[in-house]
Design a protein that fits this description.
Helix content is about 60%, strand content about 5%. It has helices at about 10-30, 35-50, 50-60, 65-75, 80-90, 100-130, 135-145, 155-170, 190-195; strands spanning about 180, 205, 210. Strands 1-3-2 form a three-stranded mixed beta sheet, with no helix packed on it. A hairpin with a 2-residue loop joins β2 and β3 (about 210). α2 (about 35-50) runs antiparallel to α3 (about 50-60) and α7 runs antiparallel to α8 (about 155-170). The radius of gyration is 33 Å and the shape is rod-shaped. The termini are far apart.
């Protein structure tokens, strides 16, 4: 009876290659669930250990206060938690290094610039075709006014100004004027009568509009 051939045990090199391939597959499965900004945040946080700073680096136009508030939420997302845990175990294969971080930052920046350019062209073309309408102005202001505070393209000051303008257009802000009705000369003081006589009074008295009827 012929003896069955012995199986060759894997060499150290092939075993290492298999382990690397397995780790890479796990990395792909975990990291591909993250957006570019989530991935950048996770890499920087894993490297520096400063969460709010990592969030600000991934979202350059966000203030420190907004970042400290937002970072609590992002660290509670299950896919981000899984990515951070994996990066602690496998920092090299996860791209937790300056080269991968800089490359990802550059990619996000280029995409952001392209998006802004496309949005501007689309808005300009729409105005040229449709003209400027009340509904169009309200729609564009609403985009700014109700943009999330984490939006890197909209500052808090822009949101506040857009909200004020939107409220005025929609009649939510009423200008108050104090009107005093004068029915006879007896309702006027001596100084007010003198002002009228001298021609200095022009339908206002002491800065208030006056209806003389």
């Amino acid at each position: 009876m012929a003896a069955s051939p012995k199986r060759k045990s894997p060499t150290p090199a092939s075993a290492a290659a298999q382990e690397k391939a397995k780790a890479q597959a796990e990395a792909d499965a975990i990291l591909n669930k993250l957006s570019d900004k989530e991935l950048l945040f996770a890499r920087i946080f894993s490297k520096t250990g400063v969460a709010y700073r990592a969030y600000m680096d991934a979202n350059p136009n966000v203030t420190k206060t907004s970042a400290m508030s937002a970072v609590t939420k992002i660290r509670q997302r299950p896919h981000v938690v899984a990515a951070l845990e994996f990066m602690q175990r496998e920092p090299v294969i996860s791209g937790v290094d300056d080269v991968h971080i800089a490359t990802l930052q550059d990619r996000i920046q280029r995409r952001s610039e392209m998006a802004l350019k496309n949005d501007s062209i689309t808005a300009l073309e729409r105005v040229m075709i449709e003209g400027v309408t009340r509904e169009g102005v309200i729609k564009e202001l609403a985009k700014i006014a109700f943009a999330p505070t984490s939006d890197e393209h909209v500052r808090v000051a822009d949101k506040r100004q857009a909200l004020g303008t939107l409220a005025q257009i929609m009649g939510m802000v009423v200008e108050q004027r104090h009107v005093r009705v004068v029915r006879s000369v007896e309702d006027l003081s001596e100084n007010e009568l003198k002002a009228i006589v001298n021609g200095a009074q022009q339908k206002t008295i002491n800065g208030n509009a006056v209806d003389i009827s």
